[in-house]
């Protein structure tokens, strides 16, 4: 089916970006003693040794640091109206708490300035430092109320810990109170998961990223986090990090685990939490069968379009959704209406309905 709408606002909802200060900090991390699996990718992106092999051959760094030159020109060429920017993984989550707090505030200020300069072209997800949950909550409030950003980005685990840990609940309380969605973005698997994922390129988007974020999301649901924060909204990318395809079995086995005391009793089922508290994006999964299944399984209101730029190219992502066998109404939901609702992006009166 070809694109059957003459005018369609296109909002891409998982678009990576960076500032020089964070890039410099991550470059330094690649030279340090950390055993984090993230270093395999970061060493290539930030090219600490001046090499031109591995991931450095894709030149992701130029794409991350650029917003208003090549990125915007390509958006114009392809008819992409807006990108929802977020600080690239792992953000500040590999730094100490003070450094991460300062860099998150700086990145949020820079992002807000970009959005003010080009309010119809860029929106933004704010960063925070989960290493210091109370300070994170304060920065989250500033980002929404003062900087007028559109939600939050979290790069999965922080030192191997996840949002089901009550010490991070000030972050969840802040997000729920601000009616702002948290996008849980991948990073390399935590030390507890990384063992067999270190070989064959499996540590990143081929497999490890989905395992990491899927684990995070299921932990939150199984722990009963959404009983504590019933209005909390979480977004995950890459067509739901495989959860939509496993949801029946996850749901069934969680019910069994609750019966035998292996999991806490929850008010709702995992399937109910996933449909009620989560939304997903298409980032990096340009598969019409996966899209069709996700829409049928989760409902059209819970799926949004994304590119995952610069890690994924723009043109195939546009071609994918333009040619997807869906209705005009569904295409509007996926391309812009759901993003406008979830991330509080002002609708354009010129968007065709």
Kindly list the characteristics that best describe this protein.
disordered N terminus; 8 strands; 45% helix; 353 residues
Topology at a glance:
Layout: E1 11-17, H1 20-30, H2 38-46, H3 60-65, H4 70-78, E2 82-87, H5 97-117, E3 122-125, H6 133-145, E4 152-154, H7 169-177, E5 182-184, H8 208-222, H9 225-228, E6 234-236, H10 243-259, H11 270-277, E7 278-281, H12 288-298, E8 303-304, H13 314-323, H14 328-342
Parallel strand pairs: 1-2, 2-3, 4-5, 5-6, 6-7, 7-8
Helix pairs in contact: 1-2, 5-6, 6-7
**Which of globular, elongated, flat, extended, rod-shaped describes the shape?**
globular
Radius of gyration: 19 Å
Number of strands: 8
Main sheet?
Answer: 5 strands, parallel
- What are the secondary-structure elements, in order, as H or E? EHHHHEHEHEHEHHEHHEHEHH
Percent range for helical residues?
A: 40-55%
Number of helices: 14
Class computed from helices, strands and strand pairing? alpha/beta
> What does the average pLDDT come to?
94
* Order of adjacent strands in the largest pleated sheet: 4-5-6-7-8
State the separation between the terminal residues, measured CA to CA.
19 Å
Give the low-confidence spans.
Answer: 1-5
Strand fraction: 5-15%
């Amino acid at each position: 089916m070809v694109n059957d709408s003459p005018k369609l606002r296109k909002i891409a909802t998982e678009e990576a970006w960076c500032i020089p200060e964070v890039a410099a900090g991550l470059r330094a991390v690649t030279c340090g003693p950390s055993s984090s699996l993230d270093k395999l990718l970061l060493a290539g992106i930030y090219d600490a040794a001046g090499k031109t092999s591995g991931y450095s051959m894709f030149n992701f760094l130029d794409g991350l640091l650029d917003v208003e030159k090549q990125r915007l020109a390509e958006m114009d060429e392809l008819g992409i109206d807006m990108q929802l920017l977020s600080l690239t993984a792992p953000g500040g989550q590999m730094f100490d708490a003070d450094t991460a707090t300062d860099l998150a505030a700086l990145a949020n200020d820079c992002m807000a300035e970009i959005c003010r300069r080009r309010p119809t072209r860029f929106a933004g997800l704010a960063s925070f430092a989960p290493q210091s949950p109370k300070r994170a909550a304060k920065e989250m409030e500033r980002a929404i109320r003062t900087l007028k950003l559109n939600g939050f980005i979290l790069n999965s685990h922080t030192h191997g810990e996840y949002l089901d840990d009550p010490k991070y609940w000030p972050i969840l309380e802040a997000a729920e109170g601000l009616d702002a969605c948290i996008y849980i973005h991948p990073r390399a698997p935590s030390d507890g998961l990384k063992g067999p994922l270190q070989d064959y390129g499996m540590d990143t988007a081929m497999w490890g990223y989905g395992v990491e974020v899927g684990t995070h999301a299921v932990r939150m649901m199984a722990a009963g986090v959404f009983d504590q924060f019933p209005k909390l909204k979480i977004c995950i990318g890459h067509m739901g990090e495989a959860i939509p395809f496993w949801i029946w079995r996850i749901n069934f086995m969680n019910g069994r685990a609750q019966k035998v005391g292996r999991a806490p009793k929850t008010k709702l089922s995992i399937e109910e939490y996933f449909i009620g508290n989560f939304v997903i994006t298409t980032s990096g999964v340009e598969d019409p069968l996966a899209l069709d299944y996700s829409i049928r399984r989760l409902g059209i209101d819970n799926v949004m379009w994304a590119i995952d730029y610069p890690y994924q190219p723009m043109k195939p992502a546009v071609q994918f959704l333009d040619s997807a066998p869906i209705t005009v109404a569904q295409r509007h939901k996926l391309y812009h209406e759901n993003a406008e609702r979830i991330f509080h992006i002002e609708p354009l009166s010129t968007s065709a309905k």
